[in-house]
Specification:
Length: 257
């Protein structure tokens, strides 16, 4: 299939819903063969795959709990075995847990840190090892959050994980630059996906948030996917070590008093 990613293979974690699904469809529609990773809804992963195939692309679906290094690293093995390699990695899977700091549990802390940060660490490690063996360039794109930089009271573990992802990205960009592997973060603001379902159901809270967004609307998953596609493309060959916000201006928290 022709397109910007013709001949390339991409892994997108957590791509059975939301932002990950949109990224997988975007990369697949532009020619990449995509590994669609899911945790527990195979029917939704099949939907991602069908949409890629409807656009003329190729995809496989694989179950992997990203909190388990052996499972997540198997995504790389399968990309090589079934699709002939792996050039682009999008660390997208994520969860958040709400609790005042003094009530947060160890179980929730482990879930949030392991899903958002540990998974990206060990999946990127295997992805990079295979690229080095093959002496090939690559792209790592982490879906972090405005909360890699902006406070989010009652979500301390999420902020710790996404802040960790920011420094992981900066460090890997230095270590992997000499191997022509670029590493960047895409930091969404408030995007219309299932992770925000309680916010979307709470009109006063949603309206207050919208007043803090200069563009005055939530983002759509496609708004994030188009930035990821740019960073994954040849046009971004000289881009590494930075975070790119896609947040309608939320991080600036514009207010005219
Ligand atoms: N929606 C937003 O407003 C927003 C803002 C900033 C950052 N983000 C980040 O974007 C990413 C995608 O979130 P989303 O908004 O699409 O929500 P979502 O809930 O639709 O997507 C999260 C995905 O991660 C998967 N996942 C969770 N735990 C997993 C595990 N252990 N193994 C494999 N997959 C797992 C889920 O199954 C789901 O597909 C997350 O990293 C999130 O932190 C979202």
């Amino acid at each position: 299939m022709a397109g910007r990613f013709a001949g390339k293979v991409a892994i997108v974690t957590g791509s059975s819903s939301g932002i990950g699904q949109s990224i997988a469809i975007r990369l697949g529609s532009e020619g990449a063969s995509v590994v669609v990773d899911f945790l527990n809804h195979p029917e939704n992963a099949d939907q991602t795959k069908s949409q890629i195939e409807a656009a003329g692309g190729k995809a496989i679906t694989l179950q992997a709990d990203v909190t388990k290094p052996a499972e997540v690293q198997n995504l790389v093995e399968q990309a090589h075995a079934q699709l002939g390699g792996c050039d682009i990695l999008v660390n997208n899977a994520g969860v958040e847990k709400h609790a005042p700091f003094w009530e947060a549990t160890e179980a929730d802390y482990d879930l949030v840190l392991n899903t958002n940060l540990k998974a990206a660490f060990f999946l990127s490690q295997r992805f990079v090892q295979k690229l080095m063996e093959a002496k090939k360039p690559g792209r790592i794109i982490n879906i972090s959050s405005v909360h890699e930089d902006m406070v989010f009271p009652n979500f301390a573990s999420y902020c710790a994980a996404k802040g960790g992802m920011r420094m992981l990205m900066r460090d890997l960009a230095m270590e992997l630059g000499p191997y022509n592997i670029t590493v960047n973060n895409v930091a969404p603001g408030a995007i219309n996906t299932p992770i925000n379902k309680s916010l979307l159901a709470d009109k006063p809270k949603l309206d207050a948030l919208l007043r803090n967004i200069p563009l005055g609307r939530l983002g759509e998953p496609e708004d994030v996917a188009s930035l990821v596609a740019f960073l994954a493309s040849d046009e971004a060959a000289y881009v590494t070590g930075s975070t790119y916000f896609v947040d309608g201006g939320l991080i600036r928290n514009y207010k005219e008093q």
